[in-house]
TrEMBL record:
It comes from the Eukaryota. GO terms for molecular function: nucleic acid binding. This is Integrase catalytic domain-containing protein. Residues 41-211 form the Integrase catalytic domain. GO terms for biological process: DNA integration.
Amino acid sequence: MSLWTFWHGETDVKRYVISCSVCQLTKPSQKKAAGLMVPIVPQKPWEYVGVDFVGPLPRTPTGNAYLIVFVDYSTNCVEASAVKEATSQVAAGKFVTDIFARQGTPTYLISDRGSPFVSEFFEHVVSALGSVHRLTTAYQPQTNATERVNRTLKTAIRAYVGDKHASWDRFLPQICFALRTAPRDSTGMTSAMMLYGRELDTPLDLITQPSTAGVDEPGVPYPETLRASLQEAHDHANTALDYSHDRQKRYYDLRHRHATFRVGDLVRVKMHPRSDAQSNFTAKLAPLFEGPLCVSQRLSDVNYRLTWVDSGVDAGVYHVVNMQPDCPVGTIILQNNKKNIYININNTNQVDSKT
């Protein structure tokens, strides 16, 4: 080809090759995963609260088959309840009784996009209480802290129930107590200390602590002591959390790259198909991406709202880890002394010659 044609540079050839629509749908990216860490840094307890359902689990004699879990992002305090159904009515009711009535209104409530959390009823209850409801992006649940707590809860339940799987709801109070009195790796402090300014007494504490009966010890009044201990606990926890977030971000970002898109950019999004033996369909051979879609709104450094190019229908919110730039179909021009040869990638078998 180089004997009778020439091109201005390899850039045109590269653009021609990477714009192949089949390749863009089927070939995996060889780059680092997109999206640097954007940690959530709460300034006070119960400012950010995550919620999620766990289940279905074996139905207990009392009819419970699900867990609903609330987690405070600041103290890592866990509120978990056994419920019969995973519905928006149950989620809204537990939000009112377990969080609002005990801790007040959280500034932000974070959940996944499960059907109980995207209903108008649940959204109405949350907004009526003054909280802002934030949804995690599809296939990117790391934003919701309850995902990690759920693993811990299921591990603890597995250890408690033994072979009596239908008795799991009997042990929830003890498991939650254990979580509230366990020091966090990031702060070295328990949830109880960060919330109440003191550790929760256990039977062992009552046995081992020296008795103070009949002893008058002058000192600072309890309210002032409590205020000082809470302030000290929060200051220590905030310092430790800042260090922990910086460390996590540093290691996370080593395995990821910065990626940004502008409104109007064309992208393709990662697919997550499931195999279907009856249809003779296997996910291993399915396309990896679908598109093109258009960026319609930039919600944050890593989250974007997309629309389908063909129909203009809203496609939802996606994290950059599930997005790839779309290279539009183009034309490469090969030139010689007499004519230009245009090759359109839409039909590589057809070559148009123009003088």
